[in-house]
Amino acid sequence: MIPVPGFDSKRVAMFGLGRTGLGVARALEAGGATVLCWDDGEARRAEAADAGLLVDDLYAVDWSDIEALVLSPGVPLTHPAPHPLVLAAKAADVPVIGDMELFQRALDASGTRARMVAVTGTNGKSTTTALIGHLIRQAGGDAQVGGNIGRAVLDLDPPEDQTVYVIEISSYQLDLAPGFRPDVAVLLNITPDHLDRHGSFDNYVAIKDRIFANQTGRGYAIFGIDSQPVARLCTARCGQQAPAGSKDGGPKVIPMSTRKALGRGVYVLGGKIYHSRSSRVEEAADLNDIATLQGIHNWENAAAAFAAVRVLGIDPSKIAEGLQRFPGLAHRMEQVAEINGVRFINDSKATNADAAARALDTYDHIYWIAGGVAKAGGIEPLKEYFPKIRKAYLIGKAAPDFAATLDGHVRHTLSGTLEEAVTQAAHDAADEKDAVVLLSPACASFDQFPDFEKRGDAFRNAVRDLAKSSSEPKQGGGAAA
Q1: Would 137 be classed as within a structural domain?
Q2: Could you tell me the pTM of the whole model?
Q3: Which end of the chain has less neighbouring CB within 10 Å, N or C?
Q4: CATH of the domain at 29
């Protein structure tokens, strides 16, 4: 745990007592604060009380002696409307902040030479974050990986001189971190997402751009310029000479692409990473035979990770070795099994169409399991991939709408449940060479599962049951006498 300084003997309000909120409360208390905890859910309040935290109704407190309101990232700050406690805090001139802001303050006060790499983007940030941490560790470094992935940021180990924090940060968290200042900031891509929480796509883009807002000339800013909104931000930060670096004393800019060669920066062509070094471009790594980094979207993740780790001073040869050993992440194009020549891929993390497009682009001969709670636009943006889909198996609330989109283009069935979809898809795919049964739902999970992890686990279990049944000896009579 990282104690949060600066609030000694002061009262701090903490609203939202999920995993992140409980950790924040403990970290604030460890720094000397008096923390008033509240959640609208009775069970979470009881859990906090059982953990020895001070539970106090924030709807009834006197805000005049409260130093800050720390908000869980799941609580609306601005849209669709500010939470009532946000309005109460702002009316009393109490700052509203989040866990990433507290982490930055703790890091600033630590007096160490610890560094921070932060990764954001609509898609790919978890894989990129995990990959950066993996590469640092493979090279013998001390990487603390967390934030919006794995351990909450204040649950990480306290900083030491050699520590490198590798942090995944969401738009919700950036919105609550006005002082956030990573040494290396990575913005992978931006596509429409979470617009209900940010009001408009322009607002969403502006919040993502905040990852660079406080960087100085000592920092590095890595931009995935294949994404047009990101390319525009890159140009805005460093003028028309984006590949040459920054302007106005800002961070050193490193453009990154998987679609074109760059004179400066990092790019991938034909599955190989190239980077500029000593005024020339060199090949750095070959991704083609790395099973956990297949597909152009994973090439983007690998290029961003390479760029981030390279500026930390790690030699390209060590990075290439580390890439070969990357184990991948669960629920992100994870091959669960191969049964009678059919591969079963768990891409449960694909909670929107853009994320699903990355998997659909990677495979051919696809038996696609999709559905859940649809995002705006449904699967209309995926029409260019329909010719690759042999059949779709639709589950959850989105199934009827997805069926209407697929009508006349892709064979489909309303499977209802994930387990039934796996059984049907396995049966249909059995006789096709190079067939892939792909769970890439293009939807949130909340109609049938509490989160995408549980949905992915259910897919794994269904596939394992299928594998077990297919390996059991068939029952029946012997040969006729």
Answers
A1: yes
A2: 0.85
A3: C
A4: 3.40.50.720
